[in-house]
Design goal:
alpha+beta, 6 strands, six-stranded antiparallel β-sheet, single chain
């Protein structure tokens, strides 16, 4: 009978958590997707790339909101069980409050390991895949981005200016400059002017230019020539979208190796990122977010279990529940604040790992004494 009761409780908490996760996660995902519209509007990627990039970033959202969602689910399920007298079923079937707390803690441990798995492997791996999608993609919407009288610098190392765009998608008075600025001191710099131009293939990587002039600098020799027709290849250029992975997109093993190397004064070389001492704080903050913050989940569960120390018949029941909710909220805030104070030292990382472990022991001891006397 006890197993059935706890299975129902865990199922109810899980169902509530899934509903809240889907609701909040979808809202955050939509807001994030709106912010990423620059990939289409400014960077010229198509909507398939845009959708896949957002989809791969969804586990990151789950990892961020999971502690809040789980704490809220436990909190409101315990209140619901109390109001519906379902907690009395546990007590009348010989389940002690101490055993009740232990079972909830064991469940929170499983959720904690799930969050560590999402944060340390699934989320960074998916974000890295999203970055690879950008890296391997082309600017399919480039023709749509070209507007008359506007400089287009979507493509890295290339600036295009169109004086006039016709209704049949051809262009008049075209200026193309390779490089960030006009500087003929640089080797292999080039400016192209054409009276007319248009894209000629399905991939729209060839820009056919008509009746123009090329001014180029090769090995400090200035040259120029006129042309009647020339096909300008855009495939050698790439978007300005960031191609290198960010810290949150790196694997946990690489982060750990880099952090340990910096602390021990050794060099760590990786093709994907630069392991520098001035970034050690950022690396440790990311490790804290992935491996230390999940340890606050059992603490949040313990605080919610203080709801067992009083019942709905007490005259100040609502006030007590509000106080416990505030404590849950403060713990979530504190766990975020601690991450800001992580420094590039192993001592700080160990210290901030010890805080949730020590807090759990103290709160657990206090709670067990409280429920035994309730």
């Amino acid at each position: 009978m006890e197993k059935l009761l706890f299975r129902k409780l865990i199922a109810d908490i899980t169902l509530r958590a899934l509903i809240i996760t889907f609701t909040i996660g979808l809202i955050v995902w939509i807001i994030q997707a709106v912010n990423y519209l620059d990939f289409v509007i400014d960077d010229g990627h198509n909507f398939k790339i845009y959708f896949l990039y957002n989809l791969y970033n969804f586990p990151k959202i789950i990892h961020r909101i999971l502690p809040f969602v789980f704490a809220i689910s436990v909190f409101f399920e315990l209140i619901k069980y109390e109001k519906n007298n379902e907690l009395l079923i546990f007590w009348t079937n010989g389940v002690s409050k101490k055993k009740f707390v232990k079972n909830l803690i064991n469940f929170s441990m499983l959720v904690m390991f799930a969050q560590i798995l999402i944060g340390s492997f699934i989320s960074p791996n998916n974000q890295f895949k999203a970055r690879l999608i950008l890296k391997d993609s082309n600017m399919d919407f480039l023709p749509n981005l070209i507007k008359q009288g506007k400089f287009i610098d979507t493509i890295s190392g290339l600036t295009i200016f169109i004086n006039h765009k016709t209704d049949n998608n051809s262009f008049k008075n075209i200026y193309i400059q390779e490089g960030e600025f006009v500087d003929f001191r640089e080797d292999d710099s080039q400016i192209i002017y054409a009276k007319e131009g248009f894209f000629i293939n399905e991939d729209k990587k060839l820009f056919r230019l008509l009746d123009g002039k090329v001014i180029s600098n090769n090995n400090n020799k200035l040259m120029s020539f006129e042309f009647d027709k020339i096909d300008y290849d855009l495939s050698k250029f790439s978007s300005r979208s960031i191609k290198k992975p960010k810290i949150q997109e790196l694997s946990s093993i690489k982060l750990f190796r880099c952090s340990v190397s910096l602390i021990s004064g050794k060099n760590y070389i990786d093709d994907l990122f630069t392991c520098e001492i001035n970034k050690s704080k950022n690396f440790n903050q990311e490790l804290y977010k992935r491996f230390v913050k999940p340890f606050y989940l059992p603490i949040l569960t313990l605080v919610c279990c203080f709801l067992l120390t009083f019942s709905k018949v007490h005259h100040n029941y609502t006030l007590r529940t509000i106080k416990i909710f505030i404590c849950v909220f403060l713990i979530l805030v504190v766990s975020e604040i601690f991450m800001r104070y992580i420094q590039g030292s192993l001592l700080y990382l160990i210290l901030f790992l010890g805080i949730p472990l020590l807090s759990f022991s103290l709160i657990y001891t206090f709670l067990i004494n409280k429920v035994n006397n309730a």
